[in-house]
Amino acid sequence: MRLAVLVCWAAMAVARAETNLERGKRVVDQAITALGGDTFLHMQDRVESGRAFSFYREKLNGLSIARIYTRYLIRPEPPTAGFLGVREREAFGKREDSAVLFLEGEGYDVTFRGARPLSEEVLQRFKESTLRNVFYILRQRLGEPGLILESRGSDVVENQPVDIVDITDIDNRTVTVYFNQITHLPARQVTYRRDPKTKDRVEEVTRFSKFRDVNGVQWPFDIQRERDGEKIYQMFSDKVEINQGLTDNLFTLPSNIKILGKPK
User: Fold this and answer.
1) Percentage of the chain surpassing pLDDT 90?
2) Which of 78, 45, 86, 82 is nearest to 217 (CA)?
3) What is the pTM of this model?
4) Integer Cα distance of 115 and 126 in angstroms
5) Which residues does residue 87 pair with via DSSP β-bridges, in sequence order?
């Protein structure tokens, strides 16, 4: 604990000569280097395999063997604000006989019965979660018009000395990221948004830990998410692979699959 405080004070002394924007950019640049530099920035796809837990009111509500396939799309140059440049397939079970597909502007819940289009609420939640994810921001969103990186200084949070940066986009989405001062890796992020039904403000906290080297990229093998102080999700990865040459076939529906009606 004493070492953490000393590191924090040393970083604060260095930071006095910088503006908040300069320091925010420096912290983010350090994080990109720690994550793998050019290898991280040019990561084409990723496969995370492990166990996914869902919780309701802090109690375990579901457990699945999960494999999450992610493929990054080429972003426009110059960058376009709010561009959603990713495809994702979340497959469940040992045989992956059920899956959820998130594509550009559409998505499907796929089972042996067929493919059911996802509701607009689920699609919007995926879009917002992706655009607010610090790893997606660092990989895909830097350089967007109106994107601001602003330092909020240093602190000791959850026994870690951290540099705190607010990342705000042109649509006023703000993600507060806590970067470990020793490793420079993201340890925690906090963001707020409105519940689409109640319009209440919702706080979402995500923690990242157990980073391991994956072919030159540092990736968290333990991801935990909370909503308004209650744990709702956790993913323990047993294996993570990058640049596996994932093709469009993995993210498109078979031509003969039955399309079911949208949920009401």
Assistant:
1) 73
2) 45
3) 0.90
4) 18
5) 71
Confidence of residue 96 (pLDDT cuts 50, 70, 90): confident
In a domain, 206, yes or no: yes
Widest distance between CA atoms in the chain: 64
Q: Which domain holds residue 241?
A: 2-251
Q: What CATH code is carried by the domain that includes residue 244?
A: 2.50.20.10
Nearest to 206 by CA among 234, 225, 178: 225
Q: Is 146 among the domain residues?
A: yes
Q: What's the total number of domains in the chain?
A: 1
Mean pLDDT, range 172-177, rounded to an integer: 97
Q: 257 in a domain, yes or no?
A: no
